[in-house]
Amino acid sequence: MPHYQTWEDFTRAAEKLYLTDPMKVRVVLKYRHCDGNLCIKITDDVVCLLYRTDQAQDVKKIEKFHSQLMRLMVAKESRSAAMETD
User: Fold this and answer.
1) SS (H, E, C) 5-64
2) pLDDT above 60 (res 82)
3) Quick one: which of 14, 38, 37 has its CA closest to 27?
4) Residue 75: what pLDDT?
5) What are phi and psi of 77, to 5 degrees?
6) How many CB atoms lie within 10 A of CB 42?
7) How far apart are CA 46 and CA 10, in angstroms?
8) Can you tell me whether residue 4 is helix, strand or coil?
9) Which terminus of the chain has fewer CB atoms gathered within 10 Å of its CB, N or C?
10) CA distance 56 to 86
């Protein structure tokens, strides 16, 4: 399971994974209060991408990216066209 150190690499890989097969991709957000870690995991049961942070400034980035993915998952228009415009 690849654990990404930089946010940019993770978002690029996650977008690529989502666009390959949007119906199989799942997103999981997990916060561990005892460690102060926020973890976002994106998987399609073959590939699993993981980004973990304890920085407060990364929370906004994760929240924005997560909401962007959720909008794409419920959109009726073409998912690839919507990803390119955001």
Assistant:
1) CCHHHHHHHHHHHHHHCCCCCEEEEEEECCCCEEEEEEECCCCEEEEEECCHHHHHHHHH
2) no
3) 14
4) 80
5) -80, 180
6) 23
7) 16
8) strand
9) N
10) 23
| Residue reference for tokens 């590939």 | 47
pTM exceeds 0.85, yes or no: no
Residue with tokens 């991408």: 49
**CB contact at 8 A, 45 and 24:** yes
Q: What is the mean pLDDT of residues 42-71?
A: 91
Write down the pLDDT at residue 56.
86
Where does residue 48 rank: exposed (0-12), middle (13-18), buried (19+ CB within 10 A)?
A: middle
Question: pLDDT over 90 for what percent of the chain?
Answer: 53
